[in-house]
């Protein structure tokens, strides 16, 4: 997977700009707050239909404008593809090869990317929500079925939670089993997909971490060892929903299910969250991303685009060199303030950015 061209119109601090990328390493360089991360964000948005930085799409529109546009031309093993997103104050329109999509989920898989920035330390240091977000974004790019199950699960979960806040207890008890049947169907699908993904991810992340640390640390990513079918998982979930019914009524929300899951990440047997240093968290998060890169390549038959946003300055020299060596066969978009200080002569295609414009 290679992105050839990216065009931004009224996106963030860009008025009109077109980027041309090459295979291998592409470096966006320039001072802070010039638009390097905005460009990287635009690429990721066209891959996933979402931004890692904001909650509402209207925040992507350049100040004083009514809409923003992002478009890209990419080449995969299946041929050329053109992606476009038109973003308005209260809506958006997505296109693949100029065909308007009726479902946002159909954008997924046309162009894949793995994104890593210093903010990804949340994956290690913050609560379960960050690790679920990582799983959801990663699995969704290679499985529209998973993304669809997530959307339907969340919709039914919202309805179940609204029901639990009702004051008519007899009506709640009569209706809950109906919601639980539907909820368990999509929950089981989500859990099965997550287990399969983690089973692949765990050894790859451990291998990447050993490489980056010269074997000084052992990274462990919790993965479910039991082999269960979706039907078996669903049967257990229905029992869990039933057993937690009284507690759910008291709390006013659903207390069990994949929306409450977590992934245990350990370094040398100690839980990473709250234990590891900033440097250890950075290396562990990077190891997970390198593992994600390999899973994408295996599932799709080609590596995704790797986006490294202001990462090199956070790594020591040996780990910078190891990272550059590891990603030699991948198209990478890397942002940094001073390329010569972090790349040490590595061959690359440089693009200098100043004030939302490409500097010749």
Please characterize this protein's 3D structure.
The strands form three sheets. This protein has a six-stranded antiparallel beta sheet with strand order 2-1-4-5-6-7, covered by helices on one side. The protein has a six-stranded mixed beta sheet with strand order 8-12-13-3-14-15, sandwiched between helices. It has 360 residues and is of the alpha/beta class. It has helices spanning 36-48, 122-125, 128-142, 144-164, 169-212, 230-243, 245-251, 278-300, 317-326, 339-343, and strands spanning 2-11, 14-20, 25-29, 67-76, 79-88, 92-96, 99-100, 113-116, 219-221, 265-267, 270-271, 305-309, 332-336, 349-354, 357-359.
- CATH homologous group name of the largest domain: RecF/RecN/SMC, N-terminal domain
What general outline do the C-alpha atoms trace?
A: globular
Cα separation of the termini = 27 Å
The number of distinct helices, counting runs of at least 4 residues, comes to 10
Class of the largest domain in CATH?
Answer: Mainly Alpha
Question: Sheet bearing the most strands, described?
Answer: 6 strands, antiparallel
What's the helix and strand layout?
Blueprint: E1 2-11, E2 14-20, E3 25-29, H1 36-48, E4 67-76, E5 79-88, E6 92-96, E7 99-100, E8 113-116, H2 122-125, H3 128-142, H4 144-164, H5 169-212, E9 219-221, H6 230-243, H7 245-251, E10 265-267, E11 270-271, H8 278-300, E12 305-309, H9 317-326, E13 332-336, H10 339-343, E14 349-354, E15 357-359
Parallel strand pairs: 3-13, 3-14, 8-12, 12-13
Antiparallel strand pairs: 1-2, 1-4, 4-5, 5-6, 6-7, 9-10, 10-11, 14-15
Helix pairs in contact: 3-4, 4-5, 5-6, 5-8
């Amino acid at each position: 997977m290679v992105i050839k061209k990216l065009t931004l119109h009224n996106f963030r601090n860009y008025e009109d700009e077109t980027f041309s990328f090459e295979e291998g390493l592409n470096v966006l360089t320039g001072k802070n707050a010039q638009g390097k991360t905005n460009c990287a964000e635009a690429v990721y948005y066209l891959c996933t239909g979402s931004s890692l930085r904001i909650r509402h799409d209207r925040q992507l529109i350049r100040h004083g404008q009514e809409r923003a546009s992002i478009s890209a031309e990419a080449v995969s093993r299946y041929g050329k593809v053109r992606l476009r997103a038109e973003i308005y104050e209260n809506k958006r329109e997505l296109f693949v090869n100029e065909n308007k999509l009726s479902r946002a989920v159909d954008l997924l898989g046309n162009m894949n990317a793995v994104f890593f920035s210093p903010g990804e330390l949340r994956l290690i240091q913050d609560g379960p929500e960050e690790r679920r977000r990582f799983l959801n974004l990663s699995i969704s790019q290679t499985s529209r079925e998973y993304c669809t199950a997530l959307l339907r699960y969340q919709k039914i979960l919202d309805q179940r939670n609204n029901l639990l806040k009702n004051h008519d207890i007899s009506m709640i008890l009569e209706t809950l089993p109906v919601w639980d049947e539907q909820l368990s169907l999509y929950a089981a699908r989500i859990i099965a997909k997550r287990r399969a993904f983690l089973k692949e991810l765990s050894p790859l992340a451990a291998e990447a971490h050993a490489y980056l640390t010269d074997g000084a640390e052992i990274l462990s990513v919790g993965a479910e060892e039991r082999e269960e079918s979706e039907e078996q998982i669903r049967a257990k979930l229905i029992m869990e929903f039933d057993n937690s019914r009284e507690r759910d009524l008291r709390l006013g929300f659903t207390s069990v299910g994949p929306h409450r899951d977590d992934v245990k990440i350990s370094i040398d047997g100690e839980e990473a969250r709250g234990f590891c240093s900033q440097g250890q968290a950075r290396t562990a998060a990077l190891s997970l991303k390198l593992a994600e890169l390999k899973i994408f390549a295996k599932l799709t038959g080609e590596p995704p685009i790797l986006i490294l946003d202001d990462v090199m300055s956070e790594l020591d020299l040996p780990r910078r060199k190891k990272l550059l060596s590891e990603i030699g066969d991948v198209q990478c978009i890397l942002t940094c303030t001073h390329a010569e200080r972090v790349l040490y002569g590595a061959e690359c295609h440089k693009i200098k950015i100043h004030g939302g414009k490409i500097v010749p």
